[in-house]
Design brief:
mainly alpha
Length: about 55
Amino acid sequence: MTDDTPAHGASRERAAEQEKWKAKGVALRAFFYIAGTHAFAAFVMLLFYLGQHAQK
């Protein structure tokens, strides 16, 4: 048997496409985690700033 059969090539292409989607998903998830972490840090810094300048 050879690896040149159409069914084998189609499954390889499908597997390669699924891997691309997985890689995109990981990159998108990492982006949102990083953006969310920065947004949370900015919010905490805002709270400290407002607390420092509050009327006591």
